UniProtKB/TrEMBL annotation:
Keywords: ATP-binding, Disulfide bond, Kinase, Magnesium, Nucleotide-binding, Rhamnose metabolism, Transferase. Belongs to the FGGY kinase family. Belongs to the rhamnulokinase family. It comes from Metabacillus halosaccharovorans. This is Rhamnulokinase. The keyword Isomerase does not apply.
Length: 471
């Protein structure tokens, strides 16, 4: 045993391979490879370049060998909802179409004609996002029914990479729940739902929980890498892994802050009540069959697009600095408006929104950035009020985890608008959650409580309080 575990964490904007090493109750991380991820146009659709992403995974694994480290295990997590279909010969039948592709426009409403919205929610407990897998598959059925008929395997993105590594095909629970095709109570594929939609249920594989050891590397890859590893299923939905790393889940709200902001709480049972439906909260699956009661907020995608609109001449840290110099400027947009999901130009869209709502129109990069951050903080506050109304309790603390927790100005804004204590960190929450799940699968860590204690003892958390309240 090398006592090293290798996490592959691929988000919508970046991917990274991080080695975890457990020693004396502390978890040490070593980022060995980082790469950009982005949507590409392919066959008239917005897609992910999964061939390039798999090459990056292999590049990162080879760097372990160069470091003289042979990890005991590897685990892969990515963003949710997206998938590929394989034929009877395990060849790709589809591109990895991205959830921001407009092919699902109007599909949710078509599905509601077959299964009423309320029934769909009370059975799956999953939020209504127009890009959920259920609507992607229904869109495919409208345009290419022959593809669905030929499909013998449905694999979500991490599961497809696992197949390329091991030859094994399996679905993993946390990511499967994001499809809105899993029953929240049986935790299995909802065959009645699939039959009603005319989607062949045979292509779905057994749903396995996080901490499952799927297998080991194929013979060809062992020869290519020079060593073998166990391939473990972490919570393959990146937010499922991130939530494992939340330092204090009791009486706390987490914000997994990256391309999306996922704001919610950890729960032991699904909450599929009318109020949760009204506010569009989800009950995604977590480790040990916990539930992630949360909602998607548009997130730092908006500032990622603003950065791109300015031709990447500013880093994220520089955009924050420019926003700090615009304290007098304030305009608020509804970040959860679909118009911000994939606009041609985010800066133009923000300016148009402010003009339409008769607010000061942000002109400078600093004013644009401040508008994004102020608007995100307001959206977080709204979601927190909804959570406290549903749970009928006050949550004194907010844990901000993920890359976005490096934004000190936004952390302070959240503390100011919510008047709650904001704990920022760990940055690589997703990779950490991925790694500890591997250690639990291999028996190095025994419980999630032990994992969370190790995480708390290993990574710094920065505290922010409302700067306008004395004491
Ligand atoms: N130094 C920084 N200052 C301010 N914000 C930062 C800084 N570094 C990163 N960020 C923010 O963190 C975001 C990336 O977060 P993260 O790396 O968690 O996303 P990801 O994992 O690529 O995507 P996903 O959310 O899909 O997992 C960036 O979009 C940026 O807004
Ligand atoms: C598309 C999904 O809503 C997205 O992946 C979200 O679930 C997430 O986890 C982002 O990291
Ligand atoms: Mg991420």
């Amino acid at each position: 045993m090398s006592n090293y575990s290798l996490a592959v964490d691929i988000g919508a904007s970046s991917g990274r391979l991080i080695l975890g090493h457990l020693a004396n109750g502390k978890l040490n991380l070593d980022e060995i490879h980082r790469f950009e991820n982005k949507i590409v146009k392919k066959n008239e659709h917005f897609c992910w370049d999964i061939e390039a992403l798999f090459q990056e995974i292999k590049t990162g694994i080879k760097k372990c060998n160069e470091l003289g480290i042979k990890p005991d295990s590897i685990g892969i997590d990515t963003w949710a909802v997206d998938y590929v279909l394989l034929d009877e010969h395990d060849n790709l039948l589809t591109d990895a179409v991205a959830y921001r592709d407009p092919r699902t426009d109007g599909m949710m409403e078509e599905v509601f004609k077959i299964i009423p919205k309320e029934k769909l929610y009370f059975e799956t407990g999953i939020q209504f996002q127009k890009f959920n897998t259920i609507y992607q598959l229904y869109a495919l059925k409208q345009t290419s029914p022959e593809v669905l008929q030929k499909a013998k395997s449905f694999l979500m993105i991490p599961e497809y990479f696992n197949f390329l590594l091991t030859g094994k095909k399996a679905n993993e629970y946390t990511n499967a729940t994001s499809t809105q095709l899993v029953n929240a109570f049986t935790k299995k594929w909802d065959h009645e739902l699939l039959d009603k939609l005319g989607i062949n249920k045979e292509m779905f594989h057994e749903i396995l929980p996080p901490k499952t050891v799927l297998g080991t590397l194929s013979k060809e890859l062992v020869e290519e890498f020079g060593f073998d590893m166990k391939v473990v299923l972490p919570a393959t939905h990146d937010t499922g892994s991130a939530v494992i790393s939340v330092p204090e889940v009791e009486d706390s709200i987490y914000i997994s802050s990256g391309t999306w902001s996922l704001i919610g709480v950890e729960n032991r049972f699904p909450i599929c009540v009318p109020q949760a439906l009204k506010y569009n909260f989800t009950n995604e699956g977590g480790i040990d069959y916990r539930y992630r009661f949360l909602k998607n907020i548009m997130g730092l995608w908006m500032i990622q697009e603003v950065k791109r609109n300015y031709h990447d001449q500013y880093s994220f840290a520089e955009l924050v600095k420019l926003a700090e110099n615009e304290q007098q400027f304030q305009s608020i947009v509804n970040v959860d408006d679909d118009r911000f999901l994939k606009p041609d130009n985010m800066v133009d869209e923000i300016q148009k929104y402010c003009q339409e709502t008769k607010q000061p129109i942000p002109q400078t990069p600093g004013q644009i950035a401040k508008c994004v951050y102020d608007s995100l903080a307001e959206s977080y506050k709204r979601a927190i009020n909804e959570i406290e109304e549903i749970f009928e309790k006050n949550f004194p603390r907010i844990n901000v985890i993920g890359g976005g927790c490096q934004n000190e100005m936004l952390n302070q804004m959240i503390a100011n608008v919510t008047n709650k204590e904001v704990c920022a960190g760990p940055i690589e929450a997703t990779a950490i959650g991925n790694i500890v799940a591997q250690y639990m699968a291999l028996g190095e860590i025994h419980t999630i409580q032990e994992a969370r204690t190790t995480i708390k003892d290993s990574f710094e958390v920065k505290i922010y309080k409302n700067q306008y309240v004395r004491g």
